[in-house]
Amino acid sequence: MRIKNVFITLFVLSLSFIFNCNSLAQEREYKIQPNDVIQITVFGEEDLSITAKVSQDGTISYPLLGVIKVAGYTERNLAKNMTEWLGEDYLVMPQVSVFVKQYSRVSVLGQVRLPGSYEIKENLTLTQAIALAGGFTEQADISAVKIIHGEPSDGENNNKLINVNKIIDKSAPDIEISANDTIVVEEYGRISIIGQVNRPGMYALKRDLTVVEAIGLAGGFTPTASQNGTRIIRVEENNKKQVISVPVASIIRSGDTSRDQILQPGDTIVVPESFF
Fold first, then answer.
1. Beta-strand relationship, 190-195 and 268-271
2. Is the full-model pTM beyond 0.90?
């Protein structure tokens, strides 16, 4: 009796597992998007078997049925609906299949490792799209990633600025990407290094870059540099200028990195000449 109960329990659990897997698979099924190219085949009806590109408003023009909405349906659901529509007035027991022949695309541009255009073969979120493009570069400003929607509607600005930091720390939900969206990842910013360094100039700013590290980017100090005289010139939002002293030589000698400074976009590092 106990063995029989065990078998019954296992059977119920197996059915539950299969049901959950099927439900999950259905949730993950790709939904047709604008600009997809779909192939509709009606068995034995050559004139009703077509290949069509989904318009920006999510519709196609189909014989007998006219303009029909297809975006948002899975292949399976659209085939089921078309079977019902054609069977109502036109055909006896039609057999319809739907296949996405060419997927719409999303562009990921700017400060990612593999910028380019990517097919959307499944429902895609912002972070998944960034992952497709190889992830952010060190120069990426991930606090203001821009999503540009393919087509503006009603004259509205459909562009969005997303702070990916909040998605990463789960304080905000991930954003679903639509067909033909363009994702633009801007550079975090630039800094200037002038004075007694070997390669003065303007440099792309990496996140959490410090003054000591920036001096290294500029090839280090010249022999006449006043290393402890290094300072940051920072212009704040109210156009007020702030001067921050950074004794680089003392930091390097003591190893006390708490005295180093993390740079911000637009900072200028000034290394004066030593007169002694």
1. parallel
2. no
